[in-house]
Structures are given as C-alpha cells and as structure tokens.
C-alpha cells in the first residue's frame, strides 16, 4: 500500500511538472494581427490621396503587377468600384 501511494504521488508530481512546463511555453506565445482598412491601397493604415492616386493611375487596367493592390473588390479590373471604395473610406485610419 505504501509503494502504491509513493508511485501515485510521484506520478501526480510528474503531471504537475509537465503541465507547468506546457503552460510556461504557451504563456510566451505572441501574435500580431494586421488590420486591413478598405481603400488603404498602400498599406499605411490611412486612406488618403496616395491611395486615390494609385487607383487613378491604374484605372482601366487589369489587376496585375503593380496594379494588383488597386483592385479593391477583387474583380481583376481597376474601375469605378475601386475608386468608390477609396472615396467612401477617404480619411479613415486604422
């Protein structure tokens, strides 16, 4: 009976040690979240004249290369809908 008690106590301590090491590993985890702002073409957390200029320069083109970020509604065309998205959100910040 005494051996069983000692074995159970050692097992219990081992479980506590393992659990605390897992908790200490998990408590050190960090994450970052990127907030996407509709109309923020250049990713500077502001919808401003630069975003409007990018969409304007790419207006009428396909969403490839440098113009891919200007396709705000993902229809593979830079058009009035993309300009409207910038206009509606103009002045907003993250």
Walkthrough of the structure:
- This protein has 94 residues and is mainly α.
- It has 2 domains: 31 residues; 59 residues, Dockerin domain (Type 1 dockerin domain, Orthogonal Bundle).
- The mean pLDDT is 83.
SSE layout and pairing:
Layout: H1 2-26, H2 49-58, H3 80-89
Helix pairs in contact: 2-3
CATH class category name of the largest domain: Mainly Alpha
Put simply, the count of helices is: 3
Question: In the CATH classification, which architecture of the largest domain applies?
Answer: Orthogonal Bundle
- Separation of termini? 65 Å
Contiguous uncertain segments of 5+ residues: none
Count of beta strands: 0
User: What is the CATH T-level topology of the largest domain?
Assistant: Type 1 dockerin domain
In short:
The chain has three helices and no strands. It is mostly helical and 94 residues long. The longest helix has 25 residues, at 2-26.
Descriptors for this entry?
single chain, Type 1 dockerin domain, mainly alpha, 48% helix, 94 residues, 3 helices
């Amino acid at each position: 009976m005494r051996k069983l008690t000692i074995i159970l106590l050692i097992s219990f301590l081992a479980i506590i040690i393992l659990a605390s090491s897992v908790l200490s590993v998990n408590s050190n985890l960090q994450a970052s979240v990127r907030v996407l702002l509709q109309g923020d073409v250049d990713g500077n957390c502001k919808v401003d004249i630069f975003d409007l200029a990018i969409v304007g320069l790419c207006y009428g083109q396909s969403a490839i290369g440098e113009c891919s970020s200007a396709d705000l509604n993902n229809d593979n065309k830079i058009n009035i809908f993309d300009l409207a998205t910038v206009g509606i959100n103009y002045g907003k910040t993250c």
